[in-house]
Every structure is written in structure tokens, then in C-alpha cells.
Amino acid sequence: MMKYYLEFEKPIEALELKIEELKRxxxxxxxxxxxxxxxxEKKVKDLRTEIFSGLTPWQKTLLARHPDxxxxxxxxxxxxxxxxxxxxxxxxxxxxxxxxxxGRIKDTPVMIIGHQKGRGTKERIRRNFGQPNPExxxxxxxxxxxxxxxxxxxxxxxxxxxxxxxxGAEERGQAEAIAVNLMQMSRLRxxxxxxxxxxxxxxxxxxxxxxxxxxxxxxxIYSVISPEGCAAILWRKNGDFTSEDFSKAADALKLxxxxxxxxxxxxxxxxxxxxxxxxxxxxxxxxxxxxxxxTLEDLRAKTPGKLVEERYKRLKKIGSFVGEG
Amino acid sequence: xxxxxxxxxLKTDKKVKIPEGLWVKxxxxxxxIYKKEIDRNLKxxxxxxxxxxxxxxxxxxxxxxxxxxxxxxxxxxxxDPLKFRDKIPYKERLEENRRKxxxxxxxxxxxxxxxxxxxxxxxxxxxxxxxxxxxxxxxxVVRAAEAALEAKKPLIIVSSSGGARMQExxxxxxxxxxxxxxxxxxxxxxxxxxxxLADPTFGGVTASFAMLGDIILAEPKSLIGFAGxxxxxxxxxxxxxxxxxxxxxxxxxxxxxxxIDRKDIKKTVSKIIxxxx
Lengths: 325, 277
Fold this sequence. Notes:
The complex is a heterodimer of chains A (325) and B (277).
Chain A (H helix, E strand, L loop, with lengths): L9 H19 L5 H20 L3 H8 L7 H8 L1 E5 L12 E8 L2 E8 L5 H6 L7 H16 L4 E7 L6 H5 L2 H13 L5 E10 H5 L6 E5 L3 E3 L3 H9 L7 H11 L3 H6 L5 E3 L10 H20 L3 H14 L3 E2 L3
Chain B lengths: L22 E3 L6 E3 H6 L15 H8 L6 E3 L4 E2 L11 H12 L5 E8 L2 E8 L10 H17 L3 E7 L7 H20 L4 E9 L1 H4 L8 E4 L10 H8 L10 H6 L5 E2 L5 H12 L1
Parallel strand pairs in B: 6-7, 7-8, 8-9, 9-10
Antiparallel strand pairs in B: 1-2, 3-5, 5-6
Helix pairs in contact in B: 4-5
């Protein structure tokens, strides 16, 4: 499979191509270049570690949207067994940009719900680029309430540019669908664990992430607005934005997992393999499921009432202001 | 997010020389109208019934019994958690908006009486940073909801907002979840919440407390939605329908309970309280 390299990965690409070429040469003839290959492999590993430990917020944004980045449906078979996908909001449609269903993580039956972007043009269109319509949020809520009925924990995987801005979405109450999810998740009487796996795009992401624990993958982002949207509002140019503008906006928005941890908005960062989640999906999935299992262990002891009470207290703490009433 | 800032102020005075302040052009029907006539009419266009944006203070006068309003949480102020800077630092922008609007923040909250009924109210003011919701607006809604729950009084919120406040980043986004959770507790305890939508109400405000009212009312012709019309147009590359995102459009699509003229709002709210609370 052809790998896709982002701009800042180009030096890595050059080295990896060279390694492949050397391997090919040593395969074909009696030349043994394995020493040389080893040296280069060490070099590429160091280079990758160096590049990925110093990513800027904009580079992280690009990585969070990397076309090879694993999506919800890539993770589910790796973290859950016996998964059965469930469809539809029972009112209007089955939104394919949000998927969900029941399955088992180790021995625990859970409800898993997540945004789903598509890979490849056709699939992307089918998944509406991971931008849900109201039906998606209503399907998600239906599944969460199903989980509540059978006392199953809810796991959500967050990865969306945002809720879809369209005529139909407005006609069918996009804002209402999101608002109701926020409200109902805050009082759902089973544990909710949310993991941002890629892009946490504004209200469209929030509508699946009101939770008892909120985690983010190391190179994921979470923001009130995209860097592009922010740049457009701040600098109001007509079209001609450069990646420098986006870079400035991404800096200003403080949207990385590391920023959000420092603000105590998320509970923990789940590490990714060097080079990003797509470099080793199995390893990333293991890290996610380990975190989920530990957390479920923690939350299991709490009564539904206590769970809801503590969730409200968590939310209440988030704010930054001065002065008293 | 604040898509509705200062867009159309500059257009009018080119062709027609209008003495400053005497005449006003209606945003909706574009008629030129004598300003005093509009003022006498509760800032409603006498030609087309468009409800002009009014300040939170003016709204309080229209909504509650005279002299009954006591403000709470008046000193809450944003403290710039992101150290955000656009053209100017966020702190300066806040200062500038305080000077310009005479308000401490984009909402005023407190207790009041509506035709004798004790209520908690939160009124948003679009003139303060587009009525955007940051930590302070979120906190004021949460505290008003908690006070309503405590005192078993109805909560009334008048929204007018471009959405979540970009300058407070993730803190603004999280306010949506906070206020929704506070409203959930009203639902669990049988407390009435009436949401009134004024022009314009968008983004993170619509997608949180504004659409969670037991009863949702809107002023005539108000623009209300999730995504701003410009964003939608750019995304789908189609012209939007005539009435799109107007209060009448929302009523037609089953998203709100009714459209109420400004002059009738107090009476209507009072009646709802009598019937439900």
C-alpha cells in the first residue's frame, strides 16, 4: 500500500524510500547491504522521534486528519469482540457518519459509538466526511438509552470536523439534536468513557463526549472551531489563506491534547506509536482498550446516582473567570 | 461562533443623506423609518413587524415588573485562559466591549417578578462581543438554573448570540455541556424553563440551553440556527430558501412552540407560568 506522507514527514519519506531501495538491491543480487539498511533504519527512527516530539499545533491538526489515521470502524474489531452494529434513529434515517453497536471488551459487554469518516472518495461521501446530521446524534442517543436500559457502559470515539452545516440539518433541528444529547448524556445512569481519536470538531464532537472520563490520543485535537474557521473570522481575507495563517490560529486555539490536559479538561493522554496512530494500529488499539478497561474497573463501584452526581460536578468545574456573585 | 459581527453597518449612508440618528433603515423590509416611531413601538418596525435587536436592559424593562429585578453575579468577569490574541489581545477586546456596551459581560442575570410570579432570568445582549458564550455566560446560566432549582422558581432565558466565544476556545465549548447539565436538573425536579429566542441565536447557544426549553418562543423574523447561513452556503454551494432560519421557518419545521410579538411576551410568559408552574 502506498503510504501517505504529510509535508513535515517528507524527510522521513526520503529515508524510507532509500531503505526500500537498498533492500531491493540486496535481495536481487549477492550484495549484502543489511548493515547499511540497519544504519538507515536507526536514522529514520531517530528522525521520526525527533519530528514527532516537536509537532506544532497545526501539524498535529494535519496528523489528526491524516488520511491513513485509524477511524472508529478500524478500532472496533481490535478492541471489541462479538460486535453487532445497530442502525438508525427510528425517526428519519441511518446517519452513516456516526456508527454504533454492542460488543464485548474483554469480559464486559459495552455500547460503542463513534464518528466515522470514510476512506477513499466514495466512502468519504457516503460517510459525509464524518459530519453528522441530526439523525446521527439521535441514533447515538437511542443507543445510549438502550445501554442505560440494560446497564451497559457507553464508550464513545470522537473524530469529526463538526456537525454538518446543511439545509436539511437545520430543518430537522441540528441544534436541538446536539443540545438534547448534551443534556441526556449528563444524566445517563451508566458509565460513559469518551476518547478523542482524531478531530474533536466543536459541538459536533461535544455531542458524543459528555462523559465520566475524557481521554485524548496523543496527536488528536479538540477545539471550539477549526483553525481554518478561526483564521477566516480573525483575518477576514478573501480566500487566500496560507498554512501560516492556519498555523497561527491553531496556536491561538490551544487545541492539542497536551493543552487540554494542562487545563484539566481531559483526564489523560493515551500515547500513540512514534509517527502516529496509523503507524501501528494494533498498538494504539491496545492502549485504548487498556485505558477503557482500567477506567471501567474504577467506575464499576459507583452507584448510578453517584455517577451522575460526579459527572455534574466535573462539568461544573470547567470555567475560567474571576469575581463572585 | 460569532459569524454575525458588524456586517451591514457601512452600507446605508452613501446614497441617501440621512441625518444621524433621526431615521433608521429596517434590517428586514429596508424601509426608512422615523426613529422615534420605532422607539415608541418597542423597537419594532411598524411596516413589517421586524423586531430590532435591543439591549439586555431594555429587555428586562419589557419582561419583568417594574423595580422587581435584582441582578446576581454582576461582577463575574472573564480571565482570558488561553491568553488569546487576534488583532488585539482578548483582554483589550473585553475592555473595549465593556466601554462600548456599558455591560460587564454578554448576559445579565438575576431574580425578578413577572406579573407577580417570582422567576430567575438570564438575558443575553448581542452588543457585547456578539452575545457570545464564554465561561462567564456559561457560569451565569448554571448559577441561575441552580438558583431556580433551589427556590423552585421558573427559569426564563432570552437568547441573542452568535454562539460559543472563540477567544476562550475549549472553555467556551465546554460551557455548552455545563449549561445543558444544569437544565437537565431542572427537568428532573419539575422546574419550568422557558427559552425565548431573539435575533440572532446561533451555534453553541442554540445547540445547548436555547433549544432545551420546556417551552420555546421566538420573536418574529429572528434568525435562529445552528450553522450560520454563510457557512451553509459555502458548504453546499446552493442558494438558501427565502425564509431560511427565520423564526417562522423554525415554527413550520416543528422546532419552536410559538412566535410572540415583543409587546405580548410578558403576558404570554406569565400565562404559561400560571398554567404549568
